[in-house]
Amino acid sequence: MNIVVYGTGGVGGYFGARLAQAGNNVTFIARGKHLEAIKNNGLQLKSVNGDYLVNPANATANIAEVENIDLILVCVKTWQVKEVAEIIKPVLNANTTVISLLNGCENAEVLSSVIDKKHVLGGLCKVVSFVEDYGVINHVAYEPTIVFGELNNEKTARVLQLEKVLNKAKITNKLAEDIQKEIWTKYLYITTVSALGALTRATHGEMLASPYIKNMMLKAAEEIYAIAKAKGVSLPENIIAKQFEIIESLPYETTASLQRDIMEGKPSELEAQNGTIVRLGKELGVPTPTNDLIYYALLPQENKARAGN
């Protein structure tokens, strides 16, 4: 399969490397020193599941150089999705599939507002990985997983083909029965831990060890669940307990990418996570006081980071 990974960070770098390892023709979209390192030295994947060096690696900053694309995995930050949709629009052919593997609950809608909805699948991923150095991706925890499906949940030929491609690459995957349920399940988890981790400057383990902070996590999760329910998303009643089981199973020192970005003074996905819950709460008439506190306490720093970029 001819695949483009748009954004070669922790997510795109990991899954792109595994897809290349399985023999797919993968092109990595990157920039700056990261791009140069990948071109010169290949893409080095360090993983608890086994290392792999993609060398030579197809890498460019310009997707217009790539022809006959079967699949585009969008692996940038959520605030960049609309811009990326505009960039990829001219290179789409009749059969190109586009999947966002990002955090957030509205990425498919943002993509579909720019490109024809027929190209878009719903998707998400689960992995703890990051760019360790230019050209080096480090996967440190969690079984890397891709969940995907048609927005109307049909089992079409293209999703069945993608399932085969992921299986061949030995990437754990799930063809969703209800893709919105899957997206909101991941969204509830990531939005519960990420920004609160940034606010407290604490790891997952440190937050869980504090009864007060753990209760804040629980209250934030309950508000997210209420928003999902108000939107008609079919989440199980035990979803919060299940997500806390996952959080508690991760290494004590685990942090989320949003948290790391904020702590490093970079723009983050704050708006797509707690900010979206605050906005939807106002639109739907659902109180979100804990998410309000987290969001507005971090917003001045987020605005400062964006002003500097």
Model description:
48% of the residues lie in helices and 20% in strands. The chain contains twelve helices and ten strands. The chain starts with a strand and ends with a helix. The chain folds into two domains: 2-177, NAD(P)-binding Rossmann-like Domain (Rossmann fold); 181-307, N-(1-d-carboxylethyl)-l-norvaline Dehydrogenase, domain 2 (Orthogonal Bundle), CATH 1.10.1040.10. The longest helix has 22 residues, at 179-200. Strands 1, 2, 3, 4, 5, 6, 7, 8, 9 and 10 form a ten-stranded mixed sheet that branches. β9, α5 and β10 form a beta-alpha-beta unit. With 309 residues, it is of the alpha/beta class. It has helices at 10-21, 32-41, 81-88, 107-112, 157-168, 179-200, 204-209, 211-230, 239-249, 257-263, 271-284, 289-307; strands spanning 2-6, 25-29, 43-47, 52-54, 58-60, 71-74, 97-100, 120-133, 136-149, 172-175.
